[in-house]
Amino acid sequence: MRIVLGVGGGIAAYKVASLLRLFTEAGHDVTVIPTEAATRFVGVATWEALSGHPVSNSVFDEVHTVNHVRLGHEAELIIVAPATADLLARAATGQANDLLTNTLLMAGGPVLMAPAMHTEMWRHPATQANVETLRSRGITVLEPATGRLTGADSGPGRLPEPEAIFAAALALAGAPAVPNAPELTTSDERASGAVPAGRPLAGLTVTISAGGTREPLDPVRFLGNRSSGKQGVALAVAAREAGARVRLLAAHMDVPAPDGVEVVRVETALELRKAALHAAADSDVVVMAAAVADFRPADVSGTKIKKRDDSADPVISLVRNPDILRELVEVRDAASRNQLIVGFAAETGDADGDVLEYAAAKLSRKACDLLVVNHVGQDKVFGEDTNEVVILSRSGSEPQEASGSKSDVAAAVIDRISAELSRVVPPA
After folding, report:
1. How many CB atoms lie within 10 A of CB 334?
2. Which CATH class is domain 187-301+310-423?
């Protein structure tokens, strides 16, 4: 695969030498384009030695090949690491003042950017706006890792590890994580034991939703829920460690998205529905762990709803949101797609039934393959670091309990998904 590796001017540039090595040792043809500032951290000679190609950051080199156009046209994948705040801003505003930004403007294939900067720079509204702009244009911007930064403090802003960027880039390009490795997507291969040890989801694409949707009332207020996104993020990590290519549909979350996964940002239930239906088209497993609002305001005010002493209390009419989980099942069944769909149910009991009774009825309505059920309430599950669930199966097998940290629960759910996949019979 022909890859362009753009290197931004940050101290984390030294890590990108290891990333370059991963790609070249996997047999990919990599052209490195450092910014002028990047060469102050790692010299041109290093990039040339590791890539085996001449390295330049000027649009005036190799003019006879129209280099600033050719590189973007020919690249099957472009990666930028570290993507500094300055580089994100220049890319978002369409600047073309060096070879790398010219190449980004000419990109015809997928683009992945791995940010690295100080925490305050990452959290600055300008940077966040630039990231959202880039994502809205189809560019994959990874979440930075959290950890020790250049100075004495720690926080989000650290460059993801080279292995995580490598895995995310190959997943974005649709390339196998191990060059020339077969994609283990059929139940026959799984039943024959052809799955790598410790990587039961190798070769599979897993889409996971996480966090809570927010339904706007006006430009200031919204209807939301208490979901923190911790369980969905733990599932994404567990699926990644099981060898899957992971796509995370991230609604509002109190925790950062993990390294090495594709992140699709959504806010409302309708946005999540659109993203889920699109993502499911190429997914072997879909796990709907997000807390989706059942209702949304029928009308959204374009201005802040005012509280006035001389007016009546406002009346907010609600309309029902679509049943995303049920629709995913219907689309899969209509297409006879060999796909496993997992739902999550946050339930409370009442005088008419207990949690498991309501969950069993929901499993019947949704017709998904597995339903992961937890009992929620004030100070219970939402936002906590531990969880206790029961996994119900449409096949009628015995309910399975799992408890402990949310990482422990995620591992149990991924193990159960792996077991279910080994029993799936492909459609004739």
Report:
1. 8
2. alpha beta
- Residues with a catalytic annotation lie at 225
Q: How far is CA 146 from CA 32, 85, 172, in A?
A: 26, 16, 22
Of 224, 261, 266, 235, nearest in space to 249 by CA: 266
- What is the CATH number assigned to the segment(s) 2-173? 3.40.50.1950
Instruction: List the chain domain ranges.
Output: 2-173, 187-301+310-423
From the list 257, 224, 255, 258, the residue with the least C-alpha distance to 241 is 258
Write the pLDDT tens digit of every residue in 230-283.
999 999 999 998 889 999 999 999 998 988 899 999 999 999 999 999 999 999
Q: How many CA atoms lie within 13 A of 232 on its CB side?
A: 35
Number of residues written out for the chain: 428
Q: Give per-residue burial for 90-116: e unless 16+ CB within 10 Å, then b.
A: bbbeeebebbbbbbbebbebbbbbbbb
pTM above 0.70, yes or no: no
Q: Do domains 2-173 and 187-301+310-423 have the same CATH topology?
A: yes
